[in-house]
Specification:
139 residues, alpha+beta, three-stranded antiparallel beta sheet, 34% helix, elongated
Length: 139
């Protein structure tokens, strides 16, 4: 299986602009620019997309791991915060915050164990070479 995305850019770094389109077209000529990446602007940026991909992948992995362990996932909500060092232009890490529930009950300790496993094993986590931290709230 292959997934694709296309990016177009025109102009200088600070004055230029571009569009990103994904294979599914959920992003379809979605604008990005210097302002959307390094300041406030309307559009997206590569780091936001990495954080979104990581949040989505990790949350699905938690659901899968809970199911494999014999539990029925309830609501699972993850926020991924990507820390971009603007001076060095490197990603320092990603903090995942998971708030979740399980319909048929699981101990908080087991829930955290399953979440840690999902953090280590989700496809996007494996693709990244930055530190990834996790905080978990179980309700």
């Amino acid at each position: 299986m292959k997934r694709t995305a296309k990016a177009h850019w025109n102009g200088t770094l600070q004055e230029g602009k571009g569009e990103i389109t994904t294979q599914s077209t959920i992003l379809n000529n979605t604008q990005y620019s210097f302002k959307t990446r390094f300041a406030d602007g309307v559009g997206t940026n590569p780091e936001e997309l990495v954080a979104a991909a990581h949040a989505g992948c990790f949350t699905m992995a938690v659901g899968a791991a809970l199911t494999q362990a014999g539990f029925t996932p309830g609501d699972l909500n993850t926020e991924a915060v990507l820390d971009l060092d603007l001076q060095a232009l490197v990603i320092n890490g990603i903090d995942l915050s998971l708030i979740g529930s399980v319909i048929d009950g699981v101990s908080e300790e087991k829930f955290k164990e399953i979440a840690e496993g999902a953090k280590a094993n989700c496809i996007i986590s494996k693709a990244l070479s930055v530190p990834i931290t996790l905080s978990v709230q179980y309700s």
